Amino acid sequence: MNVIAQSALSRYNYRLPYRKIADRFEQLHGLELSGAATWHATERAARASRCEYEQIRRQIQQADVVHIDETGIKRNGEQAWIWTFTTENHTLYAVRESRGSDVPAEVLGEDFAGTVICDGWMAYPAFSDNLQRCWAHILREAEDAAEKQPEGKPIYDSLKQLYVALQTRLESDLNIRERAELQRVARRELESLIERSVPDGPVATLLGKIEGGLDHWPTFVGEPAVSPTNNAAENALREPVVLRKLIGTLRNDRGMFVHETVLSLLATWRQQGRNPYDELKRVSRNNEMISRDQAVPAVETSG
Hints:
Blueprint: H1 2-12, H2 18-29, H3 35-61, E1 65-75, E2 78-86, E3 91-96, H4 102-108, E4 115-118, H5 123-127, E5 131-133, H6 135-148, H7 152-170, H8 176-194, H9 202-212, H10 219-222, H11 231-236, H12 238-247, H13 253-271, H14 276-295
Parallel strand pairs: 1-4, 4-5
Antiparallel strand pairs: 1-2, 2-3
Domain Transposase IS66 central: 3-256
Pfam families: DDE_Tnp_IS66
Protein name: Transposase IS66
């Protein structure tokens, strides 16, 4: 169990190549292993943890609010995507060849009833109407447009002032009716913003994005549990992005399976304040006991 747990942690917590993991086993414990052996130990950790991976998926499927984001990753040199689905207490990664709405439909279920917090990628409105578009994204884009085109400066200022004003107003203990009224006010402000006449260029593109998400920018005003930004999902993708730079490419389906499973379990355990090493030993031990029980055939006795 120790070898399995330490192999997975060395790879995914400490980002070591499998060859160096084997070297550490020999240096620290006098245990001679090949790089391939440490890979197989990490794969065993993933397979032992897969039931808990599915439990995380079920918890997220039942959540009221889920942050989603995705970034590119290579699979055998070809383009693939690693998606993250994160809530307050659970994070799940899924490596898929698709960047379309079929992925959230597969992971969350087509009847998912919660609110999705996301960026402006078209897969999200294709999956759900109940969205919160990320204000951090649109404010960055507005600031960039203002730097490129003079007409963008008053639009960026108005957008930022609206966001700050909404945040300030929400610091009061508003009731449902007051929140609904504030949400209508926010929408009217956004509508007046997109009615401005501007020449073609970055500012026109920005206003098009604001208009395209008109129903989804003020969701957080009416729903107290919803964050106005997708920072949680962006933060969850940081570790896979670092690993992507080190690993380069996942070689096959087995690599994808290990990658998404171990990353999900480690992220979720960290969120819940659990010790990853102890948890890896636990799931490996439980899996070993189940495998041993299943390997023993039932013995019939005659009366």
